[in-house]
Amino acid sequence: MPSIKLHSWNVNGLRAVLKKNFNDYLEAERPDILCLQETKISADLVGDFQFADYPYAYWNCAIKKGYSGTAILSKREPLSLTRGIGIESHDEEGRVITAEFPAYYVVTVYTPNSQNHDENKRPRRLDYRSLEWDVDFLAYLKALEATKPVIFCGDLNVAHQEIDLANPKTNRKNAGFTDEERAGFGNLLNAGFVDSFRALHPDARERYSWWSYRAASRQRNIGWRIDYVCLSKRLLPTVENAFILDHIQGSDHCPVGIEFKE
Q1: Which residue range is the domain that position 209 belongs to?
Q2: Per-residue buried b or exposed e for 55-85, using 16+ beta carbons within 10 Å of the residue's own CB
Q3: Element holding 6 (H helix, E strand)
Q4: How many CB atoms lie within 10 A of CB 262?
Q5: pLDDT tens profile 50-91
Q6: What is the pLDDT of residues 3-53, one digit of tens each?
Q7: Are 247 and 24 in contact (CB under 8 A)?
Q8: Residue 70 in contact with residue 50, Cβ under 8 Å?
Q9: In Å, how far are 26, 37, 153, 173 from 207, measured between CA atoms?
Q10: Which residues are catalytically annotated?
């Protein structure tokens, strides 16, 4: 049985990356399922985008134009498709799509960024992120998992361990590396999900998926690993490879992915 190749990529604007190397990337890598985040496409424009090898394309667009948004491109038709997690306060930003396949669910997620510090020197959206979003998203995943295993992937906007970013000490209280966000990711793992890359590469260092546009950070590899493919623990034995495609340009993020047997 052939392997399934699943990729996830925060493209930081689909129209922008299409002007760069997106089609070359598709031709070279040929993922069977491609999950996108931060598409920045409004619902009235999704019909403008066609991808020859991906007859099944699904979009979840934010109400605010040019903001957030997710997509799933698939070579195979899913059994069902759900946008959002069923909570209006979260779903207005187009952050989640779930595709059901016979043996598992695939969920693409663009987790809210906690944003810059407020007047109290605290990330502005940290309470929303840690007390509401993280709790509700985990509950959503566990409800899915009661039916069949789950693969969820995307920009989770958190570096879990010090090994996952270049400068942990100076980022200790910054968005993406607060105690609250790291604990939220830990709750995913404690609930029975597995970080596929870290499971297969427990000691890998200097492997990042996002770099600031400032100070030549990508050229110097001063980055963060905040993009993940996570999955129900019972699926881990099916995973043959977990990877970060940090050579692929076009966004401030790079694709990540897994190959697995169904």
Answers
A1: 4-260
A2: eebbbbbbeeeeebbbbbbbbeebeeebbbb
A3: strand 4-10
A4: 12
A5: 898 999 999 999 999 999 999 999 999 999 999 999 999 999
A6: 999 999 999 999 999 999 999 999 999 999 999 999 999 999 898 898 989
A7: no
A8: no
A9: 22, 20, 17, 22
A10: 110, 155
Show the tokens assigned to 28.
């070279």
Beta-sheet pairing, 193-195 with 150-155: unpaired
CATH of the domain at 196: 3.60.10.10
Kindly provide the b/e burial profile for residues 192-225, where b requires at least 16 CB atoms within 10 angstroms of the residue's own CB: ebbbbbbebeeeeeebbbbbeeeeebbeeebbbb
Instruction: Name the residue type at position 209.
Output: S
What is the distance between the alpha carbons of residues 121 and 221, in angstroms, rounded to a whole number?
27
Determine the residue type at 230: C
How many independent structural domains does the chain possess? 1
CA angle 233, 149, 38 (to 5 degrees): 95
- Structure-block tokens of residue 227: 């993009």
